[in-house]
Design goal:
It is a single chain. This protein is an alpha/beta fold. The chain has one domain: Alpha/Beta hydrolase fold, catalytic domain (Rossmann fold). Helices cover about 30% and strands about 25% of the residues. It contains 6 helices and 8 strands.
């Protein structure tokens, strides 16, 4: 994905340099930090769902920030089961704030990336969250803010919809279900983008 205003950065993290891609719409209304799926199963910042999140948020006027987790692409280090990955995102968030000031932060993530962002949200002041295909059955997901948007495929065979509903229900979270979609939203990325764009309560500043 190549959008106008793209920058490729290398940011010093706790385990070495981190490969970061920033898409800047100009006069950004906020910063969106977008996390990719599990690095041991091929997850990278170029994942199609992650690119869909970045393109949609960029189109909404957000500075879209994607990072390769440690050990992926040009990012140094090795997989750390979400712990080190959380620390890396906190460093990137601080770097964005040092460059841009106190713009509101949105956290977004897909699958394992959604799990990591639930950890980041416990330590960072954020405006809102977007969790797609959240891996709630594989990792001890943290509670999330009440304004979180949860999107899941009806036919997800990696993270069953029932598990997501069971996780969301005690927190009073609504789950937007995309009928017929699987975990990776193959053939349904335009529908996913439409869901994100239509969720104005999540994407529009209050």
């Amino acid at each position: 994905m190549k959008l106008p205003g793209q920058q490729n950065l290398s940011i010093a993290g706790p385990a070495g340099n981190l490969e970061v891609v920033v898409n800047d719409p100009g006069a950004a209304r906020g910063v969106a930090l977008i996390a990719h799926p599990h690095p041991l199963y091929g997850g990278t910042l170029d994942n199609k769902v992650v690119q869909t999140l970045a393109k949609t948020l960029y189109g909404q006027g957000y500075l879209a920030v994607r990072m390769n987790f440690r050990g992926v692409g040009a990012s140094d280090g090795v997989f750390d089961e979400g712990r080190g990955e959380t620390e890396d995102w906190l460093v990137v968030a601080q770097e964005m704030r040092s460059r841009l000031g106190s713009l509101p932060i949105t956290l977004a993530g897909f699958s394992f990336g959604a799990f990591v962002q639930t950890r980041v949200a416990r330590r960072l002041e954020v405006r809102r969250m977007i969790l797609v295909g959240a891996a709630v059955n594989r990792f001890p997901a943290e509670p999330v803010p009440p304004h979180t948007l949860v999107v899941h495929g009806e036919e997800d065979d990696v993270v069953p919809l029932k598990d997501v509903l069971d996780w969301a229900r005690p927190q009073g979270l609504a789950v937007v279900v995309l009928p017929g979609a699987g975990h990776f939203f193959h053939g349904r990325l335009l529908d996913l983008a439409r869901v994100l764009n239509n969720s104005c309560a999540c994407l529009r500043d209050s």
